[in-house]
Design brief:
single chain, alpha/beta, TIM Barrel, 8-stranded parallel barrel, two-stranded antiparallel ribbon, 13 helices, globular
């Protein structure tokens, strides 16, 4: 299982993220993923720069690591034709190191353009059309499209990279697996649920494909401080994606998680400097068939220490 590092845009500014990307590559991570949000989940996180500008800079501050959006919603805040152009540009800048991670989105980020927030079935319809458009533009030449949700009129990507951009799609259950496995190159999920990967491969009717997951940790020498930090900045995670996709802003997440206790967060997120706890939880994803796992270090001011810990202790332990 390849181990990655998460460039969490909700908890650091753009210049810091570019520096962390270089540091994570130096520390030995295999790949790096970046969230693409208009707003942080909670006010305490305090940041949300434009992911695609940061990604452009990261392509120049790194040389080896694969880069990936985790994930971009190509349906409301961005038109899919524009997402295709952005992805092709990042792929060219990174010399073929980019994977386009896509998902159906969250109200938190997409409501800002004033188009409302459709139900999950409609969001999946929109995402399926968006993937058709993005793939059509990646094919080269002029592209036209008329669907139920999108139209494209004589569009062409003028700077196509030598290597086609792979598309990974976030799924959470049978409905999304059935719809997206046939049209995506890789699967994204956030729970160590082996049934998702098995159904994905069965639906795709081909050799097993890449499966990418994400796991938060709150590293720190002071475990109590690490637990407090995780509770302050990451308790939104406790709601699960079906809830998280519907809430419109940080105030909603604060209200929905007001009764989540620090010990509740610590029960699900490794906190402190116990390497064995992190390795054990990561092993659950490996056992579930995931090929890649991106770690999130909670706390924007804790990244440099975490990267030293990862280089010296954590990555050798995970790989050993």
């Amino acid at each position: 299982m390849r181990i990655g590092y998460t460039l969490m845009t909700e908890q650091a500014g753009p210049k810091d993220l570019v520096g962390y990307a270089a540091g994570a590559e130096k520390a030995g991570f295999d790949f790096e993923v970046m969230s693409d949000h208009f707003s942080p989940w909670l006010d305490a996180q305090g940041h949300s720069p434009y992911a695609w500008s940061v990604l452009g800079a990261v392509t120049q501050s790194t040389e080896r690591v694969e880069l990936m959006t985790f994930v971009t919603c190509p349906t409301m805040r961005y038109h899919p034709a524009v997402v295709a152009q952005k992805a092709a540009t990042v792929q060219a800048l990174s010399d073929g190191r980019f994977t386009l991670g896509l998902g159906a989105g969250e109200n938190l980020n997409e409501h800002v353009v004033g188009r409302g927030w459709p139900p999950a079935n409609v969001r999946h319809e929109m995402l399926a059309e968006a993937i058709q458009i993005i793939g059509g533009l990646f094919d080269g030449g002029y592209f036209n499209y008329a669907g139920d949700h999108f139209r494209v009129d004589s569009a062409k990507l003028w700077d196509l990279p030598e290597q086609r951009v792979p598309i990974a799609v976030a799924v959470s259950g049978s409905q999304s697996v059935t719809r997206f496995a046939p049209i995506a190159d890789a699967m994204i999920a956030v729970e160590p649920d082996g049934s998702l990967g098995r159904e994905w491969d069965a639906t795709k009717l081909g050799p097993p494909t890449r499966k990418i997951a994400q796991m938060p940790v709150s590293w720190g020498e002071d475990r109590d401080a690490a637990i407090q930090r995780a509770h302050e900045q990451f308790r939104w995670f406790a709601g699960g994606w079906k809830v998280n996709a519907e809430l419109p802003g940080p105030a909603g997440f604060a209200g929905a998680t007001q009764f989540v206790k620090p010990e509740d967060v610590a029960a699900g997120i490794p906190c402190g400097s116990d390497v064995d706890r992190i390795v054990k939880q990561a092993g659950e994803f490996e056992a579930a068939g995931f090929t890649d796992l991106a770690l999130i270090q909670i706390g924007g001011d804790q990244q440099e220490g975490f990267l030293r810990f990862a280089e010296d202790t954590l990555l050798p332990a995970l790989r050993g």
